[in-house]
C-alpha cells in the first residue's frame, strides 16, 4: 500500500474547506479534513509544498509511523497550521485503512461503545425572548441540549449591542467576516456581557425548567476572576458546561474557577497537542475536553488523549463547528462511538451545497447522531462539485474594548 500521491482540494460550499486526498499505488483513495478557519492557504501550502514530499513512497498502512515522521521527524512541530495539516494526512490514512479492510473506522478503533451520540447545536437570539423561540424551534427536531449566545444591549448607547459571534446557521449570521470588513472590529464590554449572561441564563431556566441542557461558550472573554465569579453565579442554573472561561493555557485561572464553583468546565478547541491539556486533565480542572480533531493532529493523537482523559474522569466533547468539514465530523463521530468516555457532540446543520460535495454516512436525527457501516470514514467526496465551489477569502472577527484595545472574542 505505497503512497503514490497526496493532493489538496480547496472548496467553498458555503464555507471554505481544505480536503487532503491520498492515493495509494494500488488505487485506494483516502480523504481527510485540513481546514483551519481563515488560514486555509497556510495549511494548503504546508501540505502541497512541504509535507507531501515526505509521504510519497511511504507505506500508507503505517499510520503511527507516518504521524511521528511528520510530527517530530521533520523537526518543526506543533501549532495550528502544522497540526491541521497533519490531521488531514492522519484522517486520510485511516480512511484508506478502513477501505483496505472493508471496515468502518470505529471498528478499527475497538468497536462501538454506544448506539448513538447525543448532539447539541448553536442557538442564537438577539434578545432573550428570540433565543427562547429559537430553542423551541430546535426542540421540534429532537434537540435536548443547546449552546446559547445572545446580544447584550449597550446600557450607555441607545440602539447598540455587544454581539457574540455564533454559528446558528439558520439565522444566516456566521462568525467569519469578509475581506472588506477586516479592519472594522466590533466593540465589546465584558462587564455588561457578564451581567447579561446571568440574566439570560436565569430566564432560560425559568422558561424551560431543568429539561434541557444548557451550554455557554464564553470564548476566553473573561479574566480569571471574572470567570470564577460567572461560574459561581451560574452554579444554581446547572449548566451542562461553561466553555473556555479563560485562555486554554491558563492553569492558574482554571484553578481559581475550580476553587469557587462546581459549574462543569470545558476546554480544548485551541489545544494542539497532549502537552497543552495534560495538566488540566491530571489536576481535574476540566470536566469535558473539547479537542478539535482537525487542529489536534487527527484521529491518532485524539484516541491517545481520550484514554488519558478517561483515567481522570474527563469526558470528550469534540469541537464540531461548521468551520470543519463533514470529513472531520465523521472522523470525530467514529472516535466518539469507540471511546468509553464520550460526553456530548457539537453538531451543525448542512446546507445543500455542502451535501453536494460531501456525501456523508454520519447523520443527525432527532437529537442523536448515528453512523452507517461503510468502510473508512464513510464520506464520499464529489471532487467535481468541490472544484466548482471556489475559495472565497474569509477572516475571523475581531473585538476591541471601549477604549479601543484588542479583546478576546
Ligand atoms: O473558527 C472558530 C470557531 O470554530 C469557534 O469560534 C467556534 O467556539 C466555537 C465552538 O465552540 O463551536
Ligand atoms: Mg468554543
From TrEMBL:
The keyword Metal-binding applies. GO terms for biological process: amino acid catabolic process. Pfam families: MR_MLE_C, MR_MLE_N. InterPro entries: DgoD-like (IPR034593), Enolase-like_C_sf (IPR036849), Enolase-like_N (IPR029017), Enolase_C-like (IPR029065), Mandel_Rmase/mucon_lact_enz_CS (IPR018110), Mandelate_racemase_C (IPR013342), Mandelate_racemase_N_dom (IPR013341). It comes from the Bacteria. The keyword Metal-binding applies. Signal peptide: none annotated. Keywords: Metal-binding. Residues 128-264 form the Mandelate racemase/muconate lactonizing enzyme C-terminal domain. SUPFAM superfamilies: Enolase C-terminal domain-like, Enolase N-terminal domain-like. One of its GO terms (molecular function) is magnesium ion binding. Belongs to the mandelate racemase/muconate lactonizing enzyme family. GalD subfamily. Has no detectable activity with D-mannonate and with a panel of 70 other acid sugars (in vitro), in spite of the conservation of the residues that are expected to be important for catalytic activity and cofactor binding. May have evolved a divergent function. This is Mandelate racemase/muconate lactonizing enzyme C-terminal domain-containing protein. It comes from [Clostridium] citroniae WAL-19142.
Amino acid at each position: 500500500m505505497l503512497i503514490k500521491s497526496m493532493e489538496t482540494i480547496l472548496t467553498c460550499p458555503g464555507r471554505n474547506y481544505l480536503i487532503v486526498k491520498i492515493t495509494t499505488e494500488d488505487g485506494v483513495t483516502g480523504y481527510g479534513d485540513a481546514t483551519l478557519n481563515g488560514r486555509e492557504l497556510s495549511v494548503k501550502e504546508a501540505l502541497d509544498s512541504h509535507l507531501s514530499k515526505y509521504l510519497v513512497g511511504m507505506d500508507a498502512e503505517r499510520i503511527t509511523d507516518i504521524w511521528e515522521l511528520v510530527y517530530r521527524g521533520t523537526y518543526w512541530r506543533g501549532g495550528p497550521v502544522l497540526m491541521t495539516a497533519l490531521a488531514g494526512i492522519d484522517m486520510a490514512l485511516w480512511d484508506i485503512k478502513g477501505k483496505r479492510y472493508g471496515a468502518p473506522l470505529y471498528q478499527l478503533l475497538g468497536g462501538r461503545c454506544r448506539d448513538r451520540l447525543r448532539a447539541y447545536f448553536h442557538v442564537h437570539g438577539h434578545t432573550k425572548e428570540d433565543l427562547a423561540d429559537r430553542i423551541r424551534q430546535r426542540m421540534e427536531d429532537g434537540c435536548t441540549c443547546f449552546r446559547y449566545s445572545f446580544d447584550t444591549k449597550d446600557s450607555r448607547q441607545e440602539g447598540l449591542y455587544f454581539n457574540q459571534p455564533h454559528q446558528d446557521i439558520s439565522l444566516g449570521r456566521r462568525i467569519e467576516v469578509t475581506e472588506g470588513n477586516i479592519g472594522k472590529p466590533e466593540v465589546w464590554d465584558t462587564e455588561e456581557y457578564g451581567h447579561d449572561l446571568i440574566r439570560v441564563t436565569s430566564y432560560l431556566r425559568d422558561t424551560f425548567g431543568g429539561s434541557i441542557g444548557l451550554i455557554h461558550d464564553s470564548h476566553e472573554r473573561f479574566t480569571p476572576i471574572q470567570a470564577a465569579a460567572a461560574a459561581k453565579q451560574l452554579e444554581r442554573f446547572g449548566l451542562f458546561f461553561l466553555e473556555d472561561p479563560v485562555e486554554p493555557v491558563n492553569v492558574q485561572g482554571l484553578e481559581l474557577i475550580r476553587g469557587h464553583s462546581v459549574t462543569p468546565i470545558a476546554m480544548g478547541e485551541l489545544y494542539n497537542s497532549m502537552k497543552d491539556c495534560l495538566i488540566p486533565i491530571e489536576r481535574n480542572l476540566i470536566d469535558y475536553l473539547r479537542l478539535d480533531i482537525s487542529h489536534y493532529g487527527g484521529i491518532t493523537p485524539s484516541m491517545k488523549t481520550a484514554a488519558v482523559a478517561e483515567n481522570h474522569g474527563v469526558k470528550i466533547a469534540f469541537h464540531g463547528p461548521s468551520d470543519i468539514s463533514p470529513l472531520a465530523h465523521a472522523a470525530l463521530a467514529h472516535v466518539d462511538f469507540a471511546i468509553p468516555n464520550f460526553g456530548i457532540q457539537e453538531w451543525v446543520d448542512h446546507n445543500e451545497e455542502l451535501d453536494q460535495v460531501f456525501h456523508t454516512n454520519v447523520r443527525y436525527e432527532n437529537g442523536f447522531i448515528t453512523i452507517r457501516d461503510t468502510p473508512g470514514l464513510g464520506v464520499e467526496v464529489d471532487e467535481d462539485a468541490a472544484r466548482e465551489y471556489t475559495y472565497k477569502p474569509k477572516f475571523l472577527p475581531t473585538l476591541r474594548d471601549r477604549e479601543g484595545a484588542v479583546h478576546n472574542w
